[in-house]
Every structure is written in C-alpha cells, then in structure tokens.
Amino acid sequence: MTTTLSVRTEARVTVVTIERPERRNAVDLPTARALYDAFKRFDADPGADVAVLTGAGGAFCAGADLKALAQGETGRFEKDGDFGPMGPTRLKLGKPVIAAIEGPAVAGGTELALWCDLRIAARSAVFGIFNRRFGVPLIDLGTIRLPRIVGHGRAMEMILTGRPVAAEEALRIGLVAEVTADGAALARALALAQTLAGFPQTAMRNDRLSAIEQWELGEAAAANEIDRGLATLASGEATEGPARFADGAGRHGGFTGSPTGR
C-alpha cells in the first residue's frame, strides 16, 4: 500500500484516507492508482458493506496534483476503461461509499466527493470547481454528476464561475446530506456507515444500483427496477424482514436492520 493512502476497517466498514496533508491531499498518479485499487478491493470484499472516504490533516482533497502535472506526469487520462484521473471516479461499485469532508474538496476533490453516494461535511468544508482558474477540465464525470445532484442551473453556475461553495450552502442546494461541527465529519460518517451496514444488504444494494442505473436507461429504467427487485425477492431477504416485523421488530418508529446486518 502506498504511503499516500491508508485503509483500515471498523466492523463491516472500510475507511480509506488520503494521506498527503502537506499537499492538502491533492492526488498524484500513484495516489489515484492506490485509491482505485483500494475501492476495487472494498467492492470485492465480502466482509465489507460500506466504505468511508476521507482525507488527513483537515483537508478532504484539493484536486489533482497540479505540480505533478506541471512536471510532466503522464498516464492519468484514459478514454476507455474504469480508471479515472482521480482514481475510482469511473467505478460503479455494488456497495455505498460515504465522503467525510473537512476543509477543501475542490476541483477534482469535488468530483471525488460527487462520486460518493453520500457526503457529510464539516462547517469548514469548501467545494468549488477551482480548476476553472487553471484551464483544467472536469474529466472525472463532474459535468454529469453535479447537475444530477444539485440541478442544472446551480451546476452551471458552479462550473462556469468556479466560485467557492461553503458547507451551509452545499447543504441548502443538496450537495451534502449533513453538516457537522469541525472535526466531527468522520465520526458522523462512520456512524452512518454502521447504520447502513446494519440493514439487510441485498435490498439496499439493489435499490441503490437501480437509482444509479436509471439515469442511463430512459424507458428501460422501470424494467431495470423490477429486475433488481426480483433479484432481492429471490434472495429470500424480503421474506426474513416481514417475519421479523410480524414478531414485533421495527414497529412504532423503530428503524434498524437485521441483528447481523446481513
């Protein structure tokens, strides 16, 4: 494992941390490869249900390492395949990822956050298409994901102006799910991850994939949802849940998964 990235586990949660605080966790090519490899391993790991992506030293990610690019770094841009310039941004995982964001998540760091399913931001968090200032394009699917998450009009304003967006505004426009006190984003993301890991996984994963896939399917989206739902029913998970409800679980506002999370 590269020294610019660390990976640890907490129960059924995988925590991936970018470890380049001296560069505000800007991603060079080795770090991009390490991020890509770490999330491929997470997706294939039967012992992991949810991942959390964060950055060390009070910063999430300042984007691509422009110094490395200026020094002639190559191999980052591939038209085909699922490796993105920031690493995992073209991967379609079968399990959710939560971003825990402190400080800057700008340029490619915004795109990395957009790749995650949920974003928890500390009050210090700042988003923005800062690469607008340097003529560097959005090439980690930011022009696709940002309009889908915040709406076309707001996305266009962010993309064209490149202005900073603070955490409270990000919450208001739907860019993040929650805002925490500074220093608390990772703890909140971990708690949320443990909640997701406690739910029956087949239904959650299939519903998540259907929500992601519907963007590309047009009229076929409804059929895809049915196919995903039938796969959940075939797993038997949807039989266990009603049986637990009949025995009293989850009534009167209770909202927990199965005892094992499976």
Spatial gap, N to C terminus: 29 Å
- Provide the low-confidence segments as ranges: none
Strand content range: 5-15%
Strand order of the largest sheet: 1-2-3-4-6-9
Number of helices: 10
Task: Characterize the biggest β-sheet.
Answer: 6 strands, mixed
What is the percent of helical residues?
Answer: 40-55%
* Radius of gyration, taken over Cα atoms and rounded to an integer in Å: 19 Å
**Principal-axes shape call:** globular
Alpha-beta classification = alpha/beta
Total strands: 9
Return the average pLDDT rounded to an integer.
Answer: 90
Series of H and E elements: EEHEHEEHEEHHEHEHHHH
Characterize the structure shown:
The chain has about 260 residues and is α/β, with parallel strands linked by helices. It is built from 10 helices and 9 strands. The strands form 2 sheets. A 6-stranded mixed beta sheet has the order 1-2-3-4-6-9, sandwiched between helices. Strands 5-7-8 form a 3-stranded mixed beta sheet. Helix 3 (about 110-115) crosses helix 4, helix 4 (about 140-150) crosses helix 5 (about 150-160) and helix 8 (about 200-215) runs antiparallel to helix 9. It is globular.
